[in-house]
Design brief:
Layout: E1 2-7, E2 12-17, H1 18-22, H2 24-27, H3 31-41, E3 51-59, E4 70-79, E5 82-92, E6 98-105
Amino acid sequence: MTTNFEIPALATTVTVVAGCLTSPAFSQIGFEDKQCIFAAAQKLPAIPGLQIIESRAVRTPQKGKREGFEFKIEIDVKAAGQPATFAFVCSTDGAKGIFVISLGMSR
């Protein structure tokens, strides 16, 4: 079962595999992880028919004594019949919000 979501910033339809969002593993991750995954998904390339297959968030050690958190996000996709993984770094400094930086295609 798939669900279509339109991401206005990309002006394209992204098909999300519903199993990814309803799996027990996804429901057990923290709120910050989910925020980072959704923020990173908005930065995926605007490819018509792009499907998100799976996503992962791994907390990384903080540098310095900043408040907040930092994650490495990986999102597995399928586009034009080809699998790919895009990597992102997601961080925040307390109440300033979430910042996502694309590292590009990693696999």
